[in-house]
Amino acid sequence: MKTKTPSKLEKILAAGHLAVTSECGPPRGSDPEVIIKKAGLIRDHVDAVNITDNQTSMTRMCSLAACIRLKLLGLEPILQMVTRDRNRIALQSDILGAASFDINNILCLSGDHQSFGDCPLGQNVHDLDSMQLLQTVHHMRDKGKFLGGDDIARPPRMFAGAAANPFADPFEIRVARLAKKIAAGAEFIQTQCIYNLDKFEKWMGQVRDRGLHEKVSILAGITPMKSVGMARYMKKRVPGMDVPDEVVKRLADTPKEKQAAEGINICVEAILRLKEVKGVKGFHVMAIEWEEKVPEIVERSGLYPRPVVD
Amino acid sequence: MRLSYPSNIKIIRIPCTGKVDILHILRSFEKGADGVYVVGCMEGDCHFNSGNFRARKRVEQARKILETVGIGGDRVWMYNLSSSEGPRFAEIAVEMDKKIRDLGPNPMKLAKKKAA
Amino acid sequence: MIIADKKPIEEIIESIKDYSRILILGCNECVTVCEAGGKKEVGILASALRMYFLNKGKEVKIDENTLERQCDHEYLDELVDQVDNYDAIVSLACGVGVQFAAEKYRATPILPGVDTCFLGATEKRGLWTERCQACGQCILASTGGICPVSRCAKRILNGPCGGSSKGKCEINKDMDCAWQLIIDRLKALDKLDTYEELSPLKDWSTDRAGGPRKIMREDLLL
Description:
The complex is a heterotrimer of chains A (310), B (116) and C (222).
Chain A: H1 8-14, E1 19-24, H2 32-42, E2 48-51, H3 63-72, E3 77-82, H4 88-100, E4 105-109, H5 130-143, E5 159-164, H6 174-184, E6 188-193, H7 197-209, E7 217-222, H8 228-237, H9 245-252, H10 259-274, E8 280-285, H11 294-300
Helix pairs in contact in A: 4-5, 9-10
Chain B: H1 22-30, E1 36-40, H2 51-68, E2 76-80, H3 86-103, H4 107-115
Parallel strand pairs in B: 1-2
Helix pairs in contact in B: 1-2
Chain C: E1 2-6, H1 9-16, E2 21-27, H2 30-33, H3 39-55, E3 61-67, H4 73-76, E4 88-91, H5 95-104, E5 110-112, E6 114-124, E7 127-132, H6 148-151, E8 168-169, E9 172-176, H7 178-188
């Protein structure tokens, strides 16, 4: 199958393999060892690694610098880019900066509101939204032009992705919204963490009804829970998160010292079930500050070893 | 009933406490009053539904302002009673008289004297 | 209309503490309707300030006046003969009025007595909410009459974001998600199919980004 970019992720998907991605949050400091260590834990078990962009609006080392670190180590980074902190000049400029290091994947996001982070008194930008950023990436890549119309010398060659939350409200437009992101240029989708498998499957059914699963590669988002406390927090506090009561109960009924292991079990069971869902093209395993568990999850889910593409 | 209440209290009649404005309360102090209290109908019994609730809000506002400018918010109070409670009216007057006497005179009057 | 909120009296006292002849100047338009800077608020503020200074043993003259508008020359002109009687004017008009007065009376400090907040509507007495950010290019025709620029916390033109939950915004459970409102309204108008049209990159040059804005109407200018 023909690919449009040199992205390893695109090649794996094009070859028909189930892709596995993971993510690393850059440190709240300038020590590169943090990101290098995290990457080392997962490098053999995933195809590509998202680097978050000041997630939850907490100021951190920039995504681009951390992506460059991964690239230099021979990993395949996915540059997450939010429209919260940059106008269209900075967005295009950072895309070119990333392209200069042959970072070949980008995930376009609007970003959490700054009121959640450490600079709640700051401005947000939102010159573009996530869909317009997708359009911008395509404009730069496919037309080889800046938004301003000038030609780009050596245009970026990025595989463009977006996030989708099958659980956010209003549910009735969740599929229409996905269609809109595809129209804007999304080639892969990483979903919000899935705990409500029934609801996700219902959403996938609607996605297939419109044939959208053939136009975009959907990677199901998976996050292991460390404890019942984390489950309750995600259920109550994290916007757009759907954690069914039975998941909370299953962890609550587990002795405290075994809850982490049970969290991994839940996660592996989810992957095994979702592997069978038509249109799911892979998994995005977000083990938040728990990267060392990614290999176990990937192995137990039958997704190891990872395929090799040239 | 011929009940007596302190003679230093000047009664200003209004059709409904909803008519009381923050400005009425503030001006009273500007003109030298030592305390002001608003006596409205029982809550829920306002003939105009919300007059006494509005009055309570304004009393609270006036208290805040008087506290801020150094006159003292505790010089303003709101009471609710029904028209049949004559003895309670006299009781409140005595209570209010004591409260304000404990606070002493409107500090502005002292400041005025000093300035003069 | 323009919605403003009263400044704390302490802040106003701090700003005028060095003056002894002060005019509190209200405005009969928007700030009267939102009960922040009309004749009544002028009276309350003036009374409070008189008491404050008297209580401090300081002789300060505090006068009151309320103009029909402070954003028009003809009404501001009414002050021409009085302005020299004052060391400072506290304007309870919106930021427009404060500046317009300052431009006219260059030698008199004009101090703001309210915080100008937003363009909004009175939902009920005591509750005002934002509706417009004056971006200079109205898109309401394509968003079901609900403005994502002013009512979405991220100004998202292709919303909602993933944080919309049960019709509310991720940043505050009391705040409606603008995109939920847009979708509900498009449905009511039987136009939900238009939701999938991508909103193009917005030209923000008519917004704050383009610098101070100006409208010049040749059909009206003499």
